[in-house]
């Protein structure tokens, strides 16, 4: 019973991991950037939301305002990448986002760190139903629905629509796409904005369960990347499942005293295992 309760509680965390991972995958698939600053951008949006709410703005308005902050900040990052690094290699682009991540964390800790604690609201904490004697909250349901929608929508968009075809073209051959008349910068900004808003929403969902400091929230890029790695940086459904599984695994681990204090390192373990597994052929299949 205790493990079932922890697993269900882990769905909330896993849903947020999945949402963050899916927004990271969206950025990679459509603008060819492994964005290490994704969670830091989302944290700025989440803190903007809570500060506006504390200032008296109703939560129903503060949430979209925070998502807008995340979208605008992410568009600013996207403008840098489009303007100066559109033809750079993926490694160079990733290095740029790491540098921006470092700067955002430094600024965020200064503005919102431990010296400025905030209480994040939990509007969906009320019970929805009981499963096997375990209470399932509306937070778990809302998080799951959002994660599933965000996994399904890009897959349908990319495969079934004309705009999806244009997005794939600008991702794979941005210069060629621009030469044939596709407005690459505009499409890129749309992608960056959507991913930034989704990241901010993911942080808002998971923030009540974390320490209220900026650094802890910016570090959520680690489980997000673990989920994306499970999806092989290609699959939206597998990234969704990877994020959910990671959240459930951490929830169950919290009930085992022997590993309880180490559950925070599980995303690093998952990243290591996936990397070793995917590269096994390079070493194990070499002739003796």
From TrEMBL:
Membrane keyword on record: yes
Topology in the lipid bilayer: Multi-pass membrane protein
Alphabetical list of InterPro entries matching this protein: ABC_transp_permease, BCAA_transport_permease
Residue intervals passing through the bilayer: 6-26, 33-53, 59-82, 94-113, 133-158, 189-208, 238-256, 262-278
Major place of residence: membrane
Keywords attached to this entry: Amino-acid transport, Cell membrane, Membrane, Transmembrane, Transmembrane helix, Transport
CDD domains assigned: TM_PBP1_LivH_like
Cellular localisation: Cell membrane
Family classification: Belongs to the binding-protein-dependent transport system permease family. LivHM subfamily.
Protein name per Swiss-Prot or TrEMBL: Amino acid/amide ABC transporter membrane protein 1, HAAT family (TC 3.A.1.4.-)
Native organism: Actinokineospora diospyrosa
Upper lineage: Bacteria, Bacillati, Actinomycetota, Actinomycetes, Pseudonocardiales
């Amino acid at each position: 019973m205790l493990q079932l309760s922890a697993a269900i509680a882990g769905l909330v965390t896993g849903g947020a991991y999945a949402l963050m991972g899916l927004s990271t995958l969206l950025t990679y698939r459509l603008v060819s950037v492994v964005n290490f600053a994704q969670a830091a951008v989302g944290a700025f949006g989440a803190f903007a939301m809570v500060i506006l709410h504390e200032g008296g703005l109703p939560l129903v308005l503060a949430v979209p305002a925070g998502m807008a902050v995340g979208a605008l900040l992410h568009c600013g990052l996207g403008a840098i990448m489009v303007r100066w690094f559109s033809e750079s290699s993926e490694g160079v682009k990733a290095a740029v986002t790491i540098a921006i991540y470092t700067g955002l964390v430094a600024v965020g800790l200064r503005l919102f760190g431990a010296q400025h604690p905030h209480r994040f609201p939990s509007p969906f904490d009320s019970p929805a139903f009981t499963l096997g004697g375990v209470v399932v909250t509306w937070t778990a349901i809302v998080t799951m629905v959002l994660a599933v929608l965000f996994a399904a929508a890009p897959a349908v968009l990319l495969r079934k629509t004309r705009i999806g075809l244009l997005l794939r073209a600008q991702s794979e051959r941005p210069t060629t796409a621009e030469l044939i008349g596709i407005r690459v910068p505009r499409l890129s900004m749309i992608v960056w904005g959507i991913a930034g808003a989704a990241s901010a929403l993911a942080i808002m969902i998971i923030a009540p369960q974390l320490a209220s400091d900026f650094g802890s929230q910016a570090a959520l890029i680690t489980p997000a990347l673990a989920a994306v790695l499970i999806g092989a940086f290609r699959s939206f459904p597998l990234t969704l499942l990877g994020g959910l599984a990671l959240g459930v695994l951490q929830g169950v681990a919290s009930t085992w005293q022997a590993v309880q204090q180490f559950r925070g390192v599980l995303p690093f373990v998952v990243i290591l295992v996936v990397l070793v597994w995917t590269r096994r052929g390079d070493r194990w299949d070499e002739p003796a």
